[in-house]
Specification:
Blueprint: H1 2-6, H2 8-28, H3 46-53, E1 59-65, H4 74-93, E2 98-103, H5 110-118, E3 122-124, E4 131-139, E5 145-148, H6 159-171, E6 177-182, E7 189-190, E8 197-198, H7 202-210, E9 212-215, E10 229-233, H8 240-251, E11 255-259, H9 288-291, E12 294-296, E13 300-304, E14 308-311, E15 320-328, E16 346-349, E17 354-356, E18 363-369, E19 374-378, E20 403-413, E21 429-438, E22 450-455, E23 458-463, H10 467-478, H11 498-534, H12 546-612
Parallel strand pairs: 1-2, 6-9, 6-10, 10-11, 11-21
Antiparallel strand pairs: 1-4, 3-4, 4-5, 7-8, 12-17, 13-19, 14-15, 15-16, 18-20, 20-21, 22-23
Helix pairs in contact: 3-6, 7-10, 11-12
């Protein structure tokens, strides 16, 4: 038998059996797979399963892909295969409630006309006019339509969410209604500085896909009864009557999501444009937060050395660490709350601190926090900031952790027990409120979490942080729908090299210390030169004494020595990182194969010794 197996004919039989097994698996088990990824990116989430199980009316999905036109694009065809397989999984899991139609829109065919009718985006390939289609359209029994114009390769990690969002939207006869009061140009407009039009924020566009957004005025005196969730973004211009309306809305059971800010960098109003005025860019909720058991100072910003983002300072300059722009990683994200549980990375720009009031009846649950390497800094420090490195001068962490976002639940009393002018006293208390407060508004701006690319006139967002997911998760949760929350943010996340980042921070600390020492020596030398010149004849100030020349030469020598130290520190930083990379390469390229080889040899020797005995 052994001779037969190891003979040429035996090996050929084994090869044919292997090929036959794979062919049979593809035919009989086309959807079978094992997901070995850490985050289970290729496994249906519970949210998707729940959405499909709750379908009541049939949905038609039309998947358009130009098979013939994509023959030369292997990567795109592989992605299209994955999309098709996942759509078939949706169809199977929905148990007849999803009808999938796979269409190859040939040039100048009725199928191509149908794709254009749905609004799918075709990419021109040749001068002859051939277009490549790779999108999805869905319809329900009410003839409502939802479309994914084009499946971008960069968005592969968000595939399940996009498909589940489309199905969930078609399954709802009415979208949840969200009231919006914003003091920032979320819907776009004219930029005051450049006088150029700006597009709507991606966060607002995504919100409008999921919800019926109704914009309200800053002086509204009553929140409409059909508003289920109220969203406040930088509400710095709200009147007292409007704040009272919010107070009564929350007490009668309405859900509130509020984004306030001690220094909203995206606020480009005339008051905020005055250079050096930090107050014009701050917002709060008046007495409401205190009534809900929260303390908040609109003049203080949280800075964090460990979470600080690395930002560019322009061509020819080294990047700087901005300790006011922070990257909040999983260790500082609440893993229990349904809003934040699936999120991996959020960014905060000059955010404030929310502090629970001692003895408050409400329950204060932190959702996003800083690390212990943080402190509070006056918002005025950011009004004239030109170099982020200036924030590090004299920085000392106070070893406290600060809360950027929190959920408030439990009994609460009215902040206006006597009512306000023109309004009689209303509800005085509530047994339970449901409020989410975030002490930052800049996290919603595009630059803090998403890059937008223009693909033949179609805006394609490419998120690199989960800020948009946080907004939609919170609105989903507060509106009573949490099926999509477990689906969102299951894509390719940023996997930071924490060891490398620590090496960079340590080296930067040494660099700053050397720089400060150099500046101190410069100041001391200037002072010494001034003292030497005090006793000189004013007419002979241009002539240097021997003592002055010696002092200057000593300064030059010290300056050159310290500059060499600075170069050595920067070289040491790169050297540490390079050594780490060399070690990893050795482990992956040489050590692991060697260990496997030795393991096989030991197994062979042990087997041979056993056979001898």
């Amino acid at each position: 038998m052994k001779r037969l197996i190891f003979s040429g004919a035996g090996l050929l039989v084994l090869l044919l059996a292997f090929v036959a097994f794979n062919m049979a698996s593809n035919v009989l088990l086309p959807g079978a797979r094992i997901d070995l990824t850490e985050q289970k990116l290729y496994t249906f989430s519970e949210g998707t399963q729940q959405i499909l199980a709750d379908l009541e009316e049939p949905i038609d999905l039309y998947f358009f892909f130009s098979d013939q036109a994509s023959k030369k694009n292997v990567a795109l065809r592989n992605y299209a295969k994955r999309v098709e397989e996942m759509l078939k999984e949706y169809e199977r899991e929905a148990d007849g409630k999803i009808r999938l139609h796979i269409i190859d829109p040939q040039p100048f065919s009725e199928a191509e006309d149908r794709a254009a009718e749905f609004g799918l985006q075709g990419i021109p390939l040749t001068q002859s006019g051939d277009n490549l289609y790779f999108g999805l359209a869905g319809t329900n029994e009410l003839a409502q339509r939802e479309v994914i114009p084009f499946f971008a390769l960069e968005q592969e990690g968000m595939l399940e969410y996009e498909l589940s969002r489309l199905v969930s939207t078609l399954a709802q006869t009415e979208k949840p209604k969200v009231g919006l009061i914003s003091g920032l140009p979320m819907s776009g407009g004219m930029t005051p500085y450049s006088q150029q039009p700006s597009p709507a924020w991606v966060a607002l566009e995504q919100m409008q896909q999921m919800f019926d957004v109704q914009e309200l005025q800053h002086d509204v005196d009553q929140i409409p009864d059909d508003i289920g969730v109220l969203l406040l973004v930088h509400p710095k211009s709200m009147t007292e009557a409007a704040l009272y309306a919010v107070d009564q809305f929350v007490l009668r059971g309405g859900k509130l999501l509020a984004f306030i800010d001690p220094y909203a960098e995206s606020d480009q109003g005339m008051e905020a444009m005055i250079e050096g005025m930090a107050d014009g860019k701050s917002s709060d909720l008046g007495p409401l937060l205190k009534a809900w058991g929260v303390q908040y100072n609109p003049e203080q910003v949280v800075v964090d050395e460990r979470q600080g983002m690395s930002v560019s300072r322009g061509q020819g300059q080294l990047p700087a660490r901005h300790i006011g722009w922070l990257e909040v990683e999983p260790a500082q994200i609440d893993r229990e709350d349904t809003i934040t549980a699936p999120l991996q990375l959020l960014t905060v720009g000059t955010g404030g601190a929310l502090v629970p009031v001692d003895g408050a009846k409400t329950q204060f649950t932190p959702l996003l926090t800083s690390t212990a390497d943080s402190a509070l800094m006056p918002s005025e420090a950011f009004a004239k900031l030109r170099d982020p490195e200036d924030l590090l001068k004299g920085f000392t962490a106070d070893e406290h952790t600060y809360t950027f976002a929190a959920r408030l639940e439990g009994p609460a009393e009215s902040a206006y027990p006597q009512g306000v002018e023109g309004h009689e006293p209303g509800l005085q208390s509530a047994d339970n409120i449901n409020v989410v407060v975030v002490a930052d508004t800049d996290m919603l701006t595009d630059r803090m979490w998403v890059q937008v690319q223009d693909l033949f006139g179609q805006r394609i967002p490419q998120p690199w942080a989960d800020n948009g997911g946080f907004l939609i998760n919170a609105l989903d949760n507060l509106s009573g729908s949490d099926a999509l929350i477990s689906v969102r943010s299951r894509g390719d996340f940023s996997r930071p090299f924490t060891v490398v980042e620590k090496l960079q921070r340590d080296a930067e600390s040494r660099f700053r210390a050397s720089e400060q020492r150099l500046q101190q020596q410069l100041a001391e030398t200037d002072q010494r030169l001034a003292q030497l010149q005090q006793n000189q004849d004013p007419n002979q100030l241009t002539e240097l004494t021997t003592e002055q020349r010696d002092a200057i030469q000593q300064f030059i020598d010290e300056k050159l020595a310290i500059r060499k130290q600075l170069r050595d520190v920067r070289y040491k930083l790169n050297e540490d990182i390079d050594n780490l990379g060399t070690q990893l390469k050795f482990i992956n390229i040489a050590l692991v194969p060697l260990l496997l080889t030795f393991g096989v040899l030991i197994w062979w020797l042990v087997g041979r010794l056993r056979r001898k005995h």
